[in-house]
Amino acid sequence: MTVYIVNAYDIMTRTILPVKLHEQMTVTVDDIRIDGMGIVNITPTYPVYIADAIPGEKIILEVTQVDKFSGYAKVIEYLETSDKRQNSQRQYLIDAGTAPLVNLKYEAQLELKRAQINRLFQAQKLNVAVDTTIGMENPTYYRNKTIVPVKWQDGHLTSGFYRRGSHELVPMTDYFVNDQAIDQAIVKVRDILEKYQITAFDPDSQQGAIRYIMIRRGYYSKELMVVLVSNDEIIAHEDAIVADICVQLPELKSLIFNFSPKKDYVLLSPNNRTLWGEKTIHDTLLGYNFIIGPNSFYQVNPKMTEILYDLAAKKAKLKATDIVIDAYSGIGTIGITVANRVKKVLGVEVVPGAVADAQLNMRANHVENAEYILADAPEQFKKWQDAQLKPDVVFVDPPRRGLTSELISATVNMAPDRIVYISCNPVTLARDAAEIIQQGYDIDGAVLPVDQFPQTSHVESITVFKRKH
Ligand code: SAH
């Protein structure tokens, strides 16, 4: 008979965790996660995450959640605070999750983003220099667009944010990251809807009309677009509401009703009806004109987008003879702003409305050497490869999930001299970089982070790959 002797210590290490629920302890914060959560390493393999806790701070924490490999805690008391701390009166933005880094001084935010990219490249065993993050001169009130939920609470129409995991709408009027004219417009539109007792969509009963108020404002043009996103197909007192909004918002250029039943759409639907004014607004970017509709993808930080695209174009070392691909092209912003420096631009984008906008934008800017194609980027790259296209420069600006292996292979087979990767997610950037390098490219210079989203954990960067000869 075999007797199995189970080591009691083994069982203990597997089942007994280093913290208990509701346990309080005095600790020093070790590190910070990219989403702004402080990290305390209770043991070398068991971290506990704490909102609003900065490395170096001495705190008393209380454990609020115990999982197998990590836990969560809240701060009970700050015994020593960090000199990197700021904006203590803006805790509500951390609770809302809309500006999770707001308590960190801006230089520390920029360094956190640089370090995050560095760490992810190292994890891929890529020895790459990462430049200091280029930041904004004034990293507040920068967004040209916002969309906020509304709800009737305590007899008032409230606009703000849903507390995580609840149906309670916490009122907010100062979002800290939006153009302040946008914050003011939200309140005015909301109060007009309240005056006419318009129903708001209620997540509990799944009944009611208005779900969101969306506002866009041109940075240079100052043109304002208001979109009422509704669960119902009609809005009561439409004429009176339109008249009041026009009086209250003199900058208004476009007032849109977006019929977006909750069961079919996450936010906006493609069903727009112009209640007043134009269907679109305009703005300029690096001196070029862009048409922006309710559903258009348009970068939200106009000032930093100009810096980002300008640097990307410079790093691409464009030549008048270059054939350039603009992949994941949106409404054509990158291609249109570089077209006059190169021979030909070929864009590819999967959203039909965005491609239509890109074509309008080409015409609005008298660009004649660009072509925007509606297709899935990896499939189009394969077609270009089969057609023996030989681009000199390939710009890629993919969504968070990054590139696919198919797209990378097709790119490498077309053998462009330079690949300019604009990334909004360093996790997929580092993964894709490893593959691109493995297939015969080197990183040219350093990765350059450009802070498009101050106060938030989003990390945007430019990386140039050069073909090995
Ligand atoms: N370069 C543009 C848009 C970047 S956002 C700008 O800076 O304004 C990423 C874009 O990729 C979005 O417009 C999205 O619609 C598009 N996209 C997402 N998946 C795609 C795919 N499989 N093929 C082509 N485009 C895609």
UniProtKB/TrEMBL annotation:
Could you name the active-site residues? Answer: 424, 424 (nucleophile)
UniProt xrefs under InterPro entries: MeTrfase_TrmA_AS (IPR030390), MeTrfase_TrmA_CS (IPR030391), NA-bd_OB-fold (IPR012340), SAM-dependent_MTases_sf (IPR029063), TRAM_dom (IPR002792), U5_MeTrfase_fam (IPR010280)
Q: TM segments?
A: none
A molecular function GO annotation: rRNA (uridine-C5-)-methyltransferase activity
Q: Which Pfam families match?
A: tRNA_U5-meth_tr
Q: Which GO terms describe its biological process?
A: rRNA base methylation
Q: Where is the TRAM domain?
A: 18-77
Q: Where does S-adenosyl-L-methionine bind?
A: 299, 328, 349, 397
SUPFAM superfamilies referenced in this protein's UniProt entry, alphabetically: Nucleic acid-binding proteins, S-adenosyl-L-methionine-dependent methyltransferases
Superkingdom is Bacteria
Keywords from the named record: Methyltransferase, S-adenosyl-L-methionine, Transferase
Its family remark reads:
Belongs to the class I-like SAM-binding methyltransferase superfamily. RNA M5U methyltransferase family.
Name the PANTHER family on file: RNA M5U METHYLTRANSFERASE, TRNA (URACIL(54)-C(5))-METHYLTRANSFERASE
Name the chain's protein: RNA methyltransferase
Q: Which organism is it from?
A: Leuconostoc carnosum (strain JB16)
